[in-house]
């Protein structure tokens, strides 16, 4: 299967570069669920090698709105609801998978579980050593996201203690999901938050919150990854990709990677 996927990716790259090819497209936008959607796009292209699909690095949900709204792309990926003004541009979404908003730490922190109060105190700067929450005698390095980030917005809406939380100024601002993950993987004592996937557990420790793992249906916070499109510009190939992301094969892959598929 892995060899088949690799061949599909190579074929997709060749087709994408072919002059005059109109069938292929890139799905631009949020970093939330990017690994999941990339895997699904490879599976799709293995069945439809005539329609190469790429999932480029994050430009945020706002970047997807700008690109699809200006007809630069036929499909985007967003992790927040559309605003009324965006809907007035003819934009619409198709939800495909629900993704928990996880907290993760560098393994050196020495913790696997935190409470909602401890998380709020860490992000506000009241707790600045992992020793205070049962971990290593090591300074906490907070990694945050900008206020427009979809995961932070969901945490503010649903995570106890986060609605009006003032995040410490002694924190690093990560501009993309991947930058936040890379920062935590590379810096001892670091903690960050972002969309959960099983791949996130490689090089970080995903912590439980009040005893709830992000894969639990009882977990506090999650965003919904949706495909963004306009009826006026949606191509048959893009429509077929949207349909595929809601197929049994794609939904099974979403589950394997830690997501919860959204029903048809």
Describe this entry's structure for a reader.
- With 264 residues, the protein is an alpha/beta fold.
- It folds into two domains: 2-97 and 224-261, D-Maltodextrin-Binding Protein, domain 2 (3-Layer(aba) Sandwich); 100-209, D-Maltodextrin-Binding Protein, domain 2 (3-Layer(aba) Sandwich), CATH 3.40.190.
- The protein has nine helices and twelve strands.
- The strands form two sheets. Strands 1, 2, 3, 4, 6, 7, 8, 9, 11 and 12 form a ten-stranded mixed beta sheet that branches. A two-stranded parallel sheet has the order 5-10.
- Helix 2 links the parallel strand 1 and strand 2 (53-54).
- Helix 1 (2-17) crosses helix 2 (34-47).
- It is elongated and about 55 Å long.
- It starts with a helix and ends with a strand.
- The model is unreliable at 1-22 (pLDDT under 50).
Note the beta-strand portion.
15-25%
What is the global morphology? Answer: elongated
Label the structural class.
alpha/beta
* Rg of Cα set: 19 Å
Alpha carbon gap, first and last residue: 27 Å
What CATH calls the topology of the largest domain is D-Maltodextrin-Binding Protein, domain 2
- What is the N-to-C succession of helices and strands? HEHEHEHEEHEHEHEEEEHHE
Count of beta strands: 12
Largest sheet: 10 strands, mixed
Text of the CATH class of the largest domain: Alpha Beta
What is the CATH superfamily classification of the largest domain?
Answer: Periplasmic binding protein-like II
Number of domains: 2
DSSP summary: helix tally: 9
> What are the segments in which pLDDT stays under 50 over at least 5 consecutive residues?
1-22
Averaged pLDDT: 90
Helical fraction equals 25-40%
């Amino acid at each position: 299967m892995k060899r088949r996927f690799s061949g599909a990716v190579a074929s997709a790259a060749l087709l994408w570069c072919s002059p005059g090819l109109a069938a292929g497209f890139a799905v631009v936008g949020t970093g939330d669920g990017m690994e999941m959607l990339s895997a699904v796009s490879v599976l799709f292209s293995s069945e439809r090698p005539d329609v190469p699909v790429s999932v480029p690095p994050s430009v945020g949900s706002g970047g997807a709105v700008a690109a699809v709204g200006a007809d630069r792309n036929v499909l985007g990926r967003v992790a927040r609801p559309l605003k009324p003004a965006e809907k007035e541009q003819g934009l619409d979404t198709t939800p495909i998978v629900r993704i928990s908003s996880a907290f993760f730490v560098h393994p050196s922190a020495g913790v696997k579980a935190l409470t909602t109060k401890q998380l709020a105190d860490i992000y506000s700067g009241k707790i600045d050593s992992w020793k205070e929450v049962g971990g290593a005698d090591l300074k906490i390095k907070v990694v945050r996201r900008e206020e427009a980030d979809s995961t932070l917005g969901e945490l503010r809406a649903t995570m106890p203690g986060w609605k009006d939380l003032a995040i410490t100024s002694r924190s690093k601002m990560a501009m993309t999901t991947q930058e936040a993950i890379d920062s935590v993987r590379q810096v001892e004592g670091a903690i960050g938050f972002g969309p959960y996937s099983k791949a996130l557990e490689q090089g970080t420790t995903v912590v439980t919150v009040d005893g709830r793992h992000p894969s639990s249906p009882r977990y506090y916070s999650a965003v919904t990854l949706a495909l963004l499109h306009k009826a006026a510009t949606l191509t048959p190939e893009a429509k077929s990709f949207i349909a595929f992301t809601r197929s049994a094969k794609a939904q099974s892959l979403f589950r394997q990677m830690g997501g919860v598929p959204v029903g048809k």
